[in-house]
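Hi L., both proteins are below.
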Amino acid sequence: MKILLINPPRSPHNAILDHAPAEALPFIHRKLIGPPLGLLTLAGALPDHDVTLLEMKGEYDLVPEAPPPDALVRQFVEQTRPDIVGVTFIASEHPAGMEILRTVKACNPQIMTVVGGLHATLCPQDFCDPCVDVVCTLPAGHIFRNLVRAVEQGAPLEGVAGLLLNREGELVPTPVPADPPDPAGDGFIAPDRSLLTRWLSTYVVGKASGPSTYIYT
């Protein structure tokens, strides 16, 4: 299956420096720097599928004159023709992420849209929208893999544990995983960092000699 994973652009409304104590200011970066570890983990869970990453934060750092988000998303959807599009969310990027999903559905309503990330976990009700098909509210590597398998086999998504399914404007939960794997332990999935090659230079912080990254602990 073809899967497109999208990291939304940064929100322009970042007020962290307006509220941080003076002694913390030298250590704070206004930009959120670092690769989308959650999306890379989803890709690592699907080594036998055709996975593409659109890292919009990195893309606009690399090419400031890149097309606006809706045009960039449309371009990637038309190029990759995905069966599933997954978008990760934090609160400040919720508006931009929802616009991404609306653009995807405008390109092809048959594409399955899946959301996850911290905001989806804490505020799943914010995703009860026609542009969202599935919400993942748990560490999603294994769950996403099971979702992709179900879609591939034509099996009902109600049998995939750990999801919220958009059914006629209502988010309907599937069963809770009976024995969820520990994503930082026995259930660890190695992130597929090979997808980051284009944007590595954008993860360099200050005068560091190389890019920064995230790890699970």
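That was the first. Here is the second:
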Amino acid sequence: MDFDLSKPQKLLKQSARDFLARECKAERVRAIMATETADDPALWSAVAEQGWPGLIIPETYGGLGLSVVELAAVAEEMGRACMPGPLLSTIFASAVVLRAGTEEQKRRWLEPIAAGEMRATVALGNDFVFDAAAADVILTVNGAGVEALDKSALTLTRTPSMDETRKVYSLARGEASARPVHPDPALEGREHLTAIPTVALCAEMVGGMQWVLDASVEYAKTRQQFGRPIGSFQAVQHLCADMLLLTESSRSATYYAAWALANDDPSAPLAVSMAKAYTSDASREVGNKGIQVHGGIGFTWEHDLQLYYKRSKASETLFGDATFHRERIASLVIDPVLTHF
């Protein structure tokens, strides 16, 4: 099997990198994360012009009709730039509507999302709904398919989070919101709804790991100690080599999971959980090793490393941490009946 990206996929990935290098520099990331919602309408408009909100939305509903592999390629560059804002939550909403929505619901929400006219998020529970304040619509799943919650009847409370580039909220509802905020058991578990955004998140984490690795290697080349670059010391070389191994292994696991989802492969549920379990642990380790290479400056607010470290810590638990997915892997191996979405 050829795991390399095709030429069009490589071009898409490079265009995403070039775009984010122009539009999402570190100083802009810091400015956006300091706002109440971590949402910049100007950046969202620029992202919408790229067509990213409609990456996985079929052309029938105005999207680009691309696969999860292309989504992963773009998401990796989003992670490399530590891009803030509600794009991941909007992609999550698109995946849920595609999975559980009726034809009328797909027309109602996917077309404006693909056009960049609507930002969305999903509430699968009352707590930890990310980008809820920035979203134009908050969706949930019930026996009738997908439902939009009445935002005017909701009280959004910010939940403390290490990562300020992606605001998290808990929801409290008044009498006007009657239905519960949880998925229908008939949908056989939330993993079916979160598979695509989980892979996108893994790709984001890979991009963040790549940035930490690149920054650490560059720092090791220039930082002098005892009259020599610290990169000449074997201990530092080992740290960088470990980061490379963890990053490349995470990339391989993530893109295999993306391929499996794109091709409706029976191994997809197992591949998704393997990617999230490995990448969650690896991103934390890469962050730790990156701080070790940088030394004291790696802990400071002034250095961008702290942005990526905090993002990786928050992403580690989003859509299930490594322990959750290792338990799911064990269940999938023991009961193969569960291995198809």
